[in-house]
Design a protein that fits this description.
Blueprint: E1 4-15, E2 25-36, E3 40-44, H1 51-59, E4 66-71, E5 74-75, H2 80-85, E6 87-90, H3 102-112, H4 122-128, H5 144-155, E7 162-166, H6 174-189, E8 193-197, H7 201-207, E9 210-215, E10 218-224, H8 225-230, E11 234-241, E12 256-260, E13 263-269, H9 275-283, E14 288-295, H10 298-306
Parallel strand pairs: 3-8, 3-9, 6-7, 7-8
Antiparallel strand pairs: 1-2, 1-4, 4-5, 9-10, 11-13, 11-14, 12-13
Helix pairs in contact: 5-6
Length: 308
């Protein structure tokens, strides 16, 4: 049986608008979810869905209205300090002192958390995020990807078992992003439980073991990434043809045929049509040179459950 790293039960947050005519805002509506020890858990949703509110409740900067939150066996109401000590939150905004080196920043952060000098693992953390060579460089001289990794390092100085990454790849170029995800996977292999929020759905699809999607404060989907993808009903077949002279004759009720250069694309519901049916319709009106298929992805599920 998998152990639970973090759980929320009937979690509600209402932002009250006192002394105004504006209505109160229900940011989280009876949110129920569990994050398992050792997994990479994706928390997705459009802007205003309630993700930031949830993270701020975990971080202690927002007070929940009702419900229960348990982190690493500690109840948020009874042991708020232990809850915060069990989590390292990596913010979306890069906020570093430009005149401190990574090593000094980590030492300072460890001091703020009350970590004794002989218990600090500054050099090890720098190595874990591939910043050991830049340990004594000014933070202002670091690249965007290095700064992101330094934020991760700062969140780890008190050795929390859970790491929360809020949009970690925002503003990072492709190569640096690749290195960033490599570091995250390495941390996960070392036993760190990762909670990831991102607007890049392809990243979530590649990185996460399970994914929760929230919309307007409500949990609208929660499953393994594999099972979420199985919900996708649409499929696309791409036909490379000799010419498109017979395109107008290619018709099948319920299937959308479109032209794309020298290709014919067939978009259909895979639960209603068989692969062979569509191939027969095309080959009767065009000479096929090549066929490829494309299944739907996480974006299709996201749009489906959030009605976007």
């Amino acid at each position: 049986m998998n152990k639970i790293a973090l759980s929320a039960n009937n979690l509600i947050k209402i932002y009250s608008k006192k002394n105004t005519q504006e209505k109160s805002i229900l940011a989280l509506n009876k949110l129920n979810l569990e994050v398992k020890v050792g997994e990479i858990f994706g928390l997705l949703g459009p802007n205003g869905a309630g993700k930031t509110t949830f993270l701020n409740i975990l971080g202690g900067t927002v007070e929940k209205s009702s419900g229960k939150v348990n982190v690493w066996g500690f109840n948020l109401d009874e042991n708020p300090r232990q809850v915060r000590a069990s989590i390292g939150i990596v913010p979306q905004e890069v906020n570093l002192d430009a005149f401190f080196s990574p090593k000094k920043l980590l030492e300072l952060q460890a001091g703020l958390y009350g970590v004794k000098k002989d218990e600090r693992i500054t050099d090890l953390i720098l190595k874990m995020v591939s910043l050991e060579k830049q340990a004594n460089s000014y933070a202002r001289s670091l690249s965007g990807g290095m700064k992101r990794r330094l934020l991760i390092a700062k969140a780890m100085v008190h050795q929390p078992p859970i790491l929360v990454l809020d949009e970690p790849s925002a503003g990072v170029d492709v190569e640096l992003k690749k290195n960033l995800w490599k570091n995250v996977k390495e941390l996960n292999k070392l036993g760190v439980t990762i909670i990831l929020t991102t607007h890049n759905l392809s990243e979530a699809q590649e990185m996460c073991d399970r994914i929760a999607i929230i919309n307007k404060g409500n949990l609208v989907a929660l499953d393994t990434t594999e099972k979420l993808l199985e919900r996708v009903e649409n499929k696309t077949i791409k036909f490379k043809v000799v010419n498109l002279n017979g395109f107008e004759k290619i018709k099948l009720n319920g299937v959308k045929f479109t032209k794309n250069g020298s290709q014919i694309l067939a978009n259909y519901d895979k639960n209603k049509f068989k692969f062979d049916q569509i191939i027969d319709v095309v080959k009767n009106n065009a000479e096929i040179q090549d066929i490829s298929t494309e299944d739907g992805d996480l974006e299709d599920i996201f749009l489906q459950v959030t009605n976007k």
